[in-house]
Structure formats: C-alpha cells, structure tokens
Design a protein that fits this description.
Blueprint: H1 12-24, H2 29-38, H3 47-51
Length: about 55
C-alpha cells in the first residue's frame, strides 16, 4: 500500500489531547486519525471531474 504524508498545524493543546487519547486507546496518533478518516462517508469523484472547471 502506498502512503502519503500530511502535515497539519494544530495547537499544542489539541496535539496533547490527541496524543493522550491515542495513548489511552493504545494506538498511535496516525491510527487515531486514520480511524476517524475511515468513518467519513465515501465521496469518490471521477478523475475527469477533478480536472474540469466548475460550472
């Protein structure tokens, strides 16, 4: 499986909250974020739609 990197800016308070939650659940921060992303509804876009101008 290919992976991508995502860099985000969040406050220290939010990062601490995320890290503490991950520790509590015995998971990594990456696993917690992936779990939340997996809960998002599928919104697949046809590749040709992504390149076409908005109407």
């Amino acid at each position: 499986m290919k992976t991508k990197e995502v860099h985000i800016r969040i406050s220290e308070k939010r990062f601490s909250k995320l890290k503490n939650y991950a520790t509590l659940k015995e998971k990594t921060v990456t696993q917690i974020i992936e779990d939340y992303i997996d809960r998002l509804p599928n919104t697949e876009i046809d590749d040709s739609d992504a390149l076409s101008p908005r109407k």
